[in-house]
Design brief:
5 helices, globular, alpha/beta, single chain, 38% helix, Rossmann fold, binds 1,3,4-trihydroxy-5-OXO-cyclohexanecarboxylic acid
């Protein structure tokens, strides 16, 4: 079974109470359960983490690069300004899917820039928690394509 890291940046542990009109009523625990269930369905061993700390996030990205692990990443606000995170992600050795719960392109101007998108395999945004399901599906498809037949 392939391992996949689902990494979440600042404020995402507050899902459910944080701006529910934007991010929905479901909690971070609900998100974790959804990702694990999706992983079981897709034969992926999914590990969900969250941090408010840029250094910790970068350490996880290095860990993924060293272990050749695919990553589903919601960089949250780091998306818009963290060149340090981008530089870490550029070292990736496996697929990287950027996800967002909301659609940043339809929100404030500062959210229209992603410094991460250019080093990701692709981006999925605007589908609520379903963005993570779609991202895990993309990872599963990519891994299946990579396997010798
Ligand atoms: C977000 C969008 C970002 O602009 C914001 O800073 C977040 C969450 C999303 O999932 O929609 O924290 O990444």
């Amino acid at each position: 079974m392939s391992r996949v890291l689902v990494l979440n940046g600042p404020n995402l542990r507050r899902l459910g109470t944080r701006e529910p009109d934007v991010y929905g009523a479901e909690s971070f625990d609900d998100l974790t359960a959804l990702c694990r269930d999706t992983g079981r369905r897709l034969d992926l061993q999914v590990e969900v983490r969250q941090t408010d700390d840029e250094a910790e996030m970068i350490a996880w990205v290095h860990e993924a690069a060293d272990a050749r692990l695919p990553v589903v990443l919601n960089p949250a606000a780091f998306t818009h300004y963290s060149y340090a995170l981008r530089d870490a992600l550029a070292q990736r050795t496996a697929p990287l899917v950027e996800v967002h719960i909301s659609n940043p392109a339809a929100r404030e101007e500062f959210r229209h820039t992603s410094v991460v998108a250019g080093v990701a395999t692709g981006t999925i945004a605007g589908f609520g928690l379903m963005s993570y399901v779609l991202a895990l599906q993309a990872v599963a498809e990519i891994l299946a394509e990579e396997k010798p037949r």
